TrEMBL record:
<dbReference type="Pfam" id="PF14392">
    <property type="entry name" value="zf-CCHC_4"/>
</dbReference>
<dbReference type="GO" id="GO:0003676">
    <property type="term" value="F:nucleic acid binding"/>
</dbReference>
<dbReference type="InterPro" id="IPR025558">
    <property type="entry name" value="DUF4283"/>
</dbReference>
<dbReference type="InterPro" id="IPR040256">
    <property type="entry name" value="At4g02000-like"/>
</dbReference>
<dbReference type="InterPro" id="IPR036875">
    <property type="entry name" value="Znf_CCHC_sf"/>
</dbReference>
<dbReference type="InterPro" id="IPR001878">
    <property type="entry name" value="Znf_CCHC"/>
</dbReference>
<keyword id="KW-0479">Metal-binding</keyword>
<dbReference type="GO" id="GO:0008270">
    <property type="term" value="F:zinc ion binding"/>
</dbReference>
<keyword id="KW-0862">Zinc</keyword>
<dbReference type="Pfam" id="PF14111">
    <property type="entry name" value="DUF4283"/>
</dbReference>
<dbReference type="InterPro" id="IPR025836">
    <property type="entry name" value="Zn_knuckle_CX2CX4HX4C"/>
</dbReference>
<protein>
    <recommendedName>
        <fullName>CCHC-type domain-containing protein</fullName>
    </recommendedName>
</protein>
<feature type="domain" description="CCHC-type">
    <location>
        <begin position="196"/>
        <end position="211"/>
    </location>
</feature>
<keyword id="KW-0863">Zinc-finger</keyword>
Length: 217
């Protein structure tokens, strides 16, 4: 009998619509150091999502869960909302795309709403937020801080996909030419216990951190 190992096999795709096309399949990763209880996270997420109908949730190990939404619109709406968290731990939701193995779904990046504080008022423009967002990662959205030409807040607000394997950037020095450099700092919205305020890494608490301190002003 010939061994299947070492062979490269190609399958023909079904002609009719299959499981993946009918449903929206999403892989969520719990960003934490501790082991998780599958049932606890499953029940908590379903409750936060309003107990949507016809969604299957499977534990695939390594703190990852597979969510299969029959209602694609509902699944996309859940993904577009702000950070989901259970017991203070962020759940990073990513699409499982056709052609990928479930183990290839990339959880290294995550979208955040970020507040940019300390910008001089003459730079309080949407365009400034766009430049900062594109330097941070992949910019998804930049809000205009002005309504009818009037400032409505003292900071910029941007939504950016950032590499969470590295320390989250804390801010930057702004060159003001004839004035001293100014520290502009970031606030990440809805980050809870899973964010370490010592090193800036997601997934563990400050009390257990042995990493170098993240840059700060």
């Amino acid at each position: 009998m010939n061994s299947i190992e070492g062979k490269v096999i190609k399958f023909n795709k079904p002609g009719e619509l299959g499981y993946k096309r009918d449903c929206l399949n999403v892989v969520g990763k719990i960003i934490c150091e501790k082991e998780i209880n599958f049932k606890t996270y499953k029940n908590a997420l379903l409750k936060m999502w309003g107990n949507p109908q016809e969604v299957a949730i499977t534990d695939i190990g390594s703190k990852k869960l597979l969510f299969s939404f029959k209602d694609r619109k509902k699944g996309l709406q859940i993904m577009q909302n702000d950070l989901w968290n259970v017991k203070g731990n962020v759940v990073n939701l990513r699409l499982w795309r056709e052609g990928e193995s479930v183990f290839e779904v990339d959880h290294d990046f995550m979208k955040f709403w970020i507040q940019v504080h300390g910008i001089p008022h003459d730079l309080m423009e949407k365009e400034t937020g766009i430049v900062i967002g594109e330097m941070l990662g992949v910019l998804a959205e930049a809000e205009d801080p002005k309504v009818d030409g009037v400032l409505r807040r003292s900071y910029l607000r941007i939504r950016v996909s950032i590499n969470i394997i590295k320390a989250l950037p804390t801010g930057f020095w702004l060159d003001r030419e004839e004035m001293p450099p100014l520290w502009v700092f970031f606030k990440y919205e809805r980050l809870l216990d899973s964010y370490c305020f010592n090193c800036g890494i997601l997934g563990h608490e400050k009390k257990s951190c042995k990493n170098p301190t993240a840059m700060a002003c």
